[in-house]
Write a structure and sequence with these properties.
single chain; alpha+beta; 5-stranded antiparallel sheet; 4-stranded mixed sheet
Length: 539
């Protein structure tokens, strides 16, 4: 059983715990793609050299000082081939564009510093967007995205990346057919908008992160191009019209929802690897200077295509998973097999879109609770999930999200978390433990956990570290925690106070040769200090 105030979280976890038959879901996915390709393939014109995969574009913004319209770009680089493992292999070391005539230049050496085009020399790594501002080439005025409303500016396609029959990729300039299909998509969307599913509602002005409103984007629909809205809208409509089984309909809708993060106007490009960077790769509405639009109907390549997202959900019916788990005694990874066998007669899944402190009838009695509360980091995850929920008409939450209040962060966060813990204690059947994972290098975060445990009259009976976000792309840096701490607690009534034996130095020694960075040393220290005041053993 479980509950979450965010309906999107409930959709995801329900799919994980109640997976549909993967083979049947793939069959539905094939029918969906066949329909979309027959109806919308004109959106992505092919030629004799291959099928389009990515469309690169830059914003053309109007200077607020002199009204001159100019291209906003950080540098002239579109793709590079630095010979990295796992990167796309290319025919040229680097491909750049001319900011005047938009001709593409394939360069054989990455050492090139400039190009000559249109009778001028252009520095490859110098653009109009520097030090977080656009510099007008006419009057020199520096303007921010807020000043320019960059998110609503017209975008120019500067290149199309194709997959070739030989498996290689090539970049070419946009063709007349590409530009014509873009214009036709805008017209078609206006004609079909009234009867196709699309994201509803405005982006609320009162929010912890002013993005994407600070880019000039005020409605969720404005986060997508007309081409994307057509494909996604027709996908959702086909599912609703053709999939009668509620479980398979929900699974397919979840797959298309997963596509949203790779099919929107805020996707960037990993230049050295040749991969699209999805929205929320960093937890927020970041606006890339060079944006990339994916062909979601591509058959063989692309991160976040419809085929890839259907497969991702279809694979969730796997009953056996192999994971390499670090064994501290052997000092090496040890393979483990995990099994998930859901017997409908013995195991029932009951998930609620509700606050955990809801009325006792909403969430029944529990034997054991394992959970992962939001971290004390002021990240409003509900603002991020609104991006997905807007497509389902589910902008409202079932309760207040757990976030620290600026006036008294420790007390406010701890009290609100404590309310949830109190309800867990009320519903507990027997003296089984509660366990949750948590991390923060901020001592206040662990003080807030202490406030929550005290309010629910819980004692800590065990602590240990577990590897979590190590080397996870954008999140991997010395200032980020890479270890969670598992906290096990029980009602104080069934325990006896005892001194805790955990020490930071013993944990770090036990975990060798795995690294523990400075942030995690602070994380461990604060966790142990919190637990030391509340440590007990079971009677």
């Amino acid at each position: 059983m479980g509950a979450d105030v965010d309906p999107m979280s409930v959709r995801i976890v329900r799919s994980e715990l109640m997976p549909v038959d993967g083979g049947k879901l793939r069959a539905y996915g094939d029918l969906l793609l066949r329909h979309l390709r027959s109806k919308l393939s004109w959106l992505y014109p092919t030629d004799s050299d291959g099928e389009p995969l990515h469309y690169f574009s830059i914003a053309e913004v109007q200077c607020p000082a002199c009204d001159e319209i100019g291209p906003l770009y950080r540098n002239l680089v579109l793709v590079r081939d630095p010979k990295k493992v796992g990167a796309v292999v290319r025919d040229h070391a680097i491909t750049v564009f001319c900011p005047l005539c938009w001709t593409l230049h394939d360069l054989e050496s990455p050492e090139h510093k400039e190009i000559v085009c249109c009778g001028k020399r252009f520095e490859i790594m110098r653009g109009t967007f520097r030090t977080a501002a656009y510099h007008c080439s006419s009057c020199g005025k520096a303007s921010t995205h807020r000043d320019l409303k960059t998110g609503m500016a017209r975008r120019r396609i500067v290149a199309v990346e194709q997959t070739q029959p030989n498996g290689r990729r090539r970049l070419r300039m946009p063709s007349a057919e590409d530009l014509a299909s873009e214009l036709q998509a805008a017209q078609e969307w206006q004609e079909q908008r009234s009867f196709l599913p699309h994201p509803r509602g405005g982006i609320r002005a009162t929010r912890s992160d002013e993005r994407p409103r600070s880019y000039g984007i005020t409605r969720y629909e404005e986060l997508f191009t007309p081409r994307q809205l057509l494909v996604l809208g027709h996908a959702f409509q086909w599912i609703r019209d053709n999939v009668d089984d509620n479980e398979f309909r929900a699974a397919l809708e979840l797959a298309i929802s997963n596509c949203l993060s790779t099919n929107n106007k805020l996707c960037g490009y990993a230049t050295d690897y040749g991969r699209l960077s999805a929205l929320f790769s960093v937890r927020g509405y970041s606006l890339p200077v060079l944006t990339v639009e994916l062909n979601p109907l591509h058959e063989t390549a692309g991160r976040g295509t419809i085929a890839a997202c259907v497969e991702r959900v279809a694979k969730s019916d796997t009953r056996r998973v192999r994971r390499n788990i670090w064994d501290s005694q052997a000092s090496r990874p040890v393979p483990n097999q995990f099994f998930f066998q859901r017997n409908a007669e013995l195991c029932q899944v009951d998930l609620k879109n509700a606050a955990s402190e809801s009325h006792v009838d909403v969430i029944k009695k529990i034997d054991v609770a394992v959970f992962d509360p939001p971290y004390f980091d002021f990240i409003a995850y509900d603002e991020l999930s609104e991006f997905h929920r807007a497509w389902f008409g589910e902008l409202a939450l079932a309760g207040e999200p757990l976030l620290p209040k600026t006036e008294d962060p420790v007390r406010s966060f701890g009290t609100q978390l404590g309310k949830s813990l109190i309800e867990m204690v009320k519903r507990a059947r027997g003296d089984k433990p509660f366990a949750f994972t948590y991390h923060s290098a901020n001592p206040d975060a662990w003080k807030a956990v202490g406030v929550a445990l005290d309010s629910a009259d819980l004692a800590v009976t065990r602590l240990w570290p577990v590897r979590s976000d190590g080397h996870m792309g954008h999140h991997s840096n010395p200032g980020n925690c890479e270890w969670d701490v598992v906290v096990v607690c029980r009602p104080k009534a069934g325990t006896k106070k005892q001194d805790a034996e955990d020490e930071v130095s013993s944990w770090v020694s036990m975990l060798k040769p795995l690294d523990v960075n400075e942030a995690d040393v602070k994380n461990f220290r604060s966790a142990i200090e919190m637990a030391r005041q509340r440590f007990a053993v079971v009677l």
